[in-house]
Amino acid sequence: MKISYNWLKEYIDTDLTAEQVADILTLTGLEVEEIEHIGSSFNGIVVGEVLAVRPHENADRLTVCTVNAGTGTDLQIICGAPNVRASQKVAVAMVGSVLPLKLEDGSNLVIKKAKIRGVASEGMICAEDELGLGDDHSGIMVLPADIEPGTPFSQIHSSYEDYVFEIGLTPNRPDASCHIGVARDLAAVTGQPLKLPANPSAAHKSTIDDRIDIRIENPDKCYRYVGMMVENVTIGPSPEWLHNRLKAIGLRPINNVVDVTNYVMYEFGQPLHAFDYQLISGKTIIVKDYDREIPFTTLDDIERTVPAGAIFICDGEKPVAIGGVMGGLNSEIADTTKTVFIESASFNPVNVRKTSKTLALQTESSYRFERGVDPNITRMAAARCADLIAETAGGTIVEGTTDVYPEVVKPAPVNLRPAFLKRILGTEIEINTVTAILERLGFQPQNKGSVIECLVPTFRPDVTMEIDLVEEVARIYNYNNIPTTGRIAFSKPSLLPKEETFQMLLRDTAKAMGFQEIYTNSLLPDQIAGIMPENEHLLFTLNPISKDQSLLRPTLGYGFLKTVAYNFNRLAEGMRLFELGNTFSATDNGTYHKGIQEEAVLLLGVAGQRSREHWTSPAVDYTVHDLKAAFDALARKLRLQFDQEVSDNLIRYTCSGINVGHIIVKKTDDLKKMDITRPVFYGELFVSALQNLYYNNEALTYKPVPKYPPFDFDFAIIVNKAVAAGDLERVTRKEAGPLLSNLDVFDIFEGKPLQDNEKSVAFRLRFIDDDKTLTIKDVQAIIEKILGKLEKQYQAKLRSQ
Amino acid sequence: MGTEQILKEIREFPITTPAEIEEFRLSFLSKKGKVATLFAGMGKLPPEQRADFGKQANEVKQVAQQKFESARDAIEQGKSAFASVRDDISLQAPRQQLGSLHPLTQTLDEIKNVFFRLGFSIAFGPELEDDFHNFSALNFPPEHPARDMQDTFYVRKDDEDPRKDLLLRTHTSPVQIRKMLEQKPPVRSIMPGRVYRNEAVTAKSYFLFHQVEALYVDKNVTFAELKDTLIILAEMIFEKELKYRMRPSFFPFTEPSLEMDIWNPVKNQWLEILGAGMVHPNVLRSVNLDPEEYTGFALGMGIERIAKLRYEIGDIRTFYENDVRFLDQFV
Q1: Using CB atoms within 10 A as the burial measure, which of A80, A93, A113, B165 is most buried?
Q2: What is the interface pTM, i.e. ipTM, of the complex?
């Protein structure tokens, strides 16, 4: 919202600069996000006479002018305009003057002595836009011939200079959506009195019921409706002062009547609407809603479908305005309007907001009504509007005001205990300071010792409780003035929850294994079936931005594959990635909410090359075994024993019978759908299951390292190719018993001299006994037992030397 | 061991130092070496095979002898004879892959560590929340605009009790409610996590981002103490003394509310870094705490915002693209 510095000063006497005012407002809670300097004082701009022109020797388009600017010495000025001629009177910006023209960095153009293509120039002959007077940059401004050179430009063109504050208004401050409201905060800080315009409404005691009949059918949606009339007006452009006010705050002047309604809105915060009285049929205004959608053409000539329940202003036949949002084309002020009917009303904020949102139509009016307009300002604003219309558009005010106000809103009492103020703020503010602040903000404080009784003005609907008054006092006192000590105290800190410690452990482990962390989207396209495992328990948002972001991720796999495809497309060679994030699925029970399973998952994934081509090694692609290695290492880190169940393209990992995760080997076709044609493998681990298992471990304590040397034994067996090596390993481990300290599959082999359906798997077993040095005699029996079992179960033959 | 196997071992035995020559000699050519063992085993063979085997064993012996002698000669002529192209220590080493944490995790970790030093613990809650925790208990009036479908992603609407509507949490504040319902004061904890807003994707906004909030509820917690905490925090997070200001702001769940700005001398402007305030009495009541007995403060900051400041990242989308060339900068 834009607030003009000059305009503010109509309501408060102050010597503060625009920057100082902006700082004060920001520190009261009206954050000034930007200050814009508009217009110019025309200091240093004078009238000059062009005495002679000659072409610039080094530039075709430039002219060297000799100018008499009344200084006694002729100036040489380079000009680029095509229309400059000798004997013209022109506007000259003297060296040192500051023009309203903005440079790229946002600063103003400062005129300096300069050499332009080797020729000195002492000033600038200005075009309209360079003086902030318009958009015309086609040539220099040519002034009337009879003006004396040296005349200040401000004498022939009234100067207008202002600063405009862009305020980011918080939703709790409807009172500050206007200049008087902002001035009130400024006054509360500076202590200067607030100067309100004289209340004109006192002059209109009678009604205008004989000219128009006003009724409210829905007092829950329209709290008050005030009507006034001005007749015999002449519609035309507004006077310059009104133009300047509106242009400063970024409003386009339209005509004297509409401009006045906007002016009063920015003055008091009361949105107003002006109707052409002749176009109100039946001389009746009915404020009502409809239980159905209504097509309605607003004054911007767009036909809109207004939702059922929206409040309308209707005449005897039809709707003429959407209450609090926008007027209708059918009753707007036109050049021919003679009699103006002024509406000043108060609407239900929620109803206005819903209508405005449904229509995607936010107006200056709806912006204010959504936040809450003081119902007790309605009548005064109408009268102020009538006065100003009569002033700017001629005409006379029809004696009387019709004011339909079914339920009068009165200031509510709220008390502030100084002890409570101190308890919240942690500092004691002098009681006179407190009451002075509350007084200036309009709360009419009465100091009763242990309590300060206040009456909340109706323009502050946000203040309903004692704590609200605490904030009022604190913000005007200035948060930055509340003393600090540089020390804080706190009670015994709690232990960090296991969830935190465990997730840190997982992240650190993944990082230590050389994985890079990614953050992927939790909202996925609705069509990921066919790429991801079938899942019947999907959850969707009811109102997605688009179908591509509607599914709550049931897996981290999709995000991983997306990331891999994104990077392959950018010529990445290899990736080793992990993510720790939440997944969602529908369930019968649920984690936090019934029916919703939300759980943390750790994804580990590898893609492309494990090592690139280098003199130390050829390029090697990742295999699923690289990923399995990471799973194994993680299990080691967590001191857990993972078991694998292998099916076609899935390895399911369990631990003590509990499902802890899986590795999925994606089909080439599925990967192609994701635009991936290189090796990619990923797996997921369920964090809470792992966490429970991990914390069931015995505490980590030192175990002495073996005193006796190990005994290694190698053997290779031949089995049918269909036998899974993992099964051979599992049986071998089991049969090897407690002396086994390590098992490596150190070689596999197929081809001659083996049969076509045979393969050889070579194991290296390391045995350690804590009590003695092992010899072949100790190990022989174990090996025979293993070989016997393997032969019986898998028809394994020892591959002999 | 067969002759083939021994031959292979001989050929592959690396010799580049005098010590390795000696090791080679001991292993193959000494009295107990593998070649001698080979000959010793010949006696056990049937007579008809001995000649053949002897021939092969002799070949092995010659190969070993040759390798030994040429290595010994070479070492006498000087070390350079041993240097292969691979021994050039100026040769480029292979690239060592480094694991890394995402810059958002790194930023959060640093923020967490500051809070941990200041005696805060940490708490978690679901991303898929109900209206009660996300809005009602946090003093959002029933008609608050944040409840609109335009602003919040809903997953389930409950016709009978709107407080049971399920939605993607719009802030981490619902974890404050969970924490206060679960634990009597003093409560001193932070709540980090992912949050969602139904917003268009631009360089400045994304429909998900990450927050960390802090909550302190006890007897006699004051606004002055909040200010002290914020100043200490900001200086610890940014690791320097800062020029700062606090200005009033508005959040439904705190009052008085504030936003804290720090001065950026390079850009010559104030930068907002966090929002905070005293826990609203209505919030304390919603978790059955008496506002006459307890007070508290809460504060919250966007992790993306802090990470953008730290690393001078202009576009928020960069965080979720996971370009490895981006991630590699944060190893």
Answers
A1: A93
A2: 0.87
Domain encompassing residue B31: 3-81
Is CATH 3.50.40.10 the classification given to domain A200-404?
yes
- How many other C-beta atoms can be found within 10 angstroms of the C-beta atom of residue A324? 29
The architecture that CATH gives domain A42-158 is Beta Barrel (2.40)
| Mean per-residue pLDDT over chain A, rounded | 92
pLDDT tens-digit readout, B62-106 = 888 888 888 888 777 765 545 678 888 889 999 888 999 999 999
Distance from CA of B200 to the nearest CA of A (A): 8
Contact at CB, A511 and B143, closer than 8 angstroms? no
Write out pLDDT tens, residues A462-516.
Answer: 999 999 999 999 999 999 999 999 899 888 899 999 999 999 999 999 999 999 9
Total of domains in chain B: 2
If asked whether residues B67 and B194 sit together in one domain, one would say: no
Task: List the B154-156 sheet strands across, edge first.
Answer: B128-130, B166-168, B154-156
All CATH 3.50.40.10 domain ranges of chain A, comma separated, are 200-404
* Model pLDDT for residues A107-123, shown as the tens digit of each residue: 778 899 888 888 889 99
- Could you tell me if A562 and A682 are in contact, meaning their C-beta atoms sit under 8 angstroms apart? no
Q: Is A622 on the interface with B (CB under 8 A)?
A: no
Q: Is residue B122 part of a domain?
A: yes
**Per-residue confidence (pLDDT) for residue B81, from 0 to 100:** 47
Say how far residue B262 (Cα) sits from the centre of its chain: 28
What is the three-class DSSP state of A414?
A: strand
The CATH code of domain A498-696 reads 3.30.930.10
Provide the CATH topology of domain A2-39+162-190. Answer: Phenylalanyl-tRNA Synthetase; Chain B, domain 1 (3.30.56)
The pLDDT of residue A183 is above 90: yes
**Position A568: which residue type?**
F
Tell me the shortest Cα–Cα distance from A426 to chain B, in angstroms.
5
Hey, what CATH topology would domain A711-798 get? Alpha-Beta Plaits (3.30.70)
- Which residue's structure tokens are 């001005």? A230
Which residues, in sequence order, are CB contacts of A111 under 8 Å at separation 6+? A44, A93, A94, A95, A96, A97, A98, A99, A123, A124
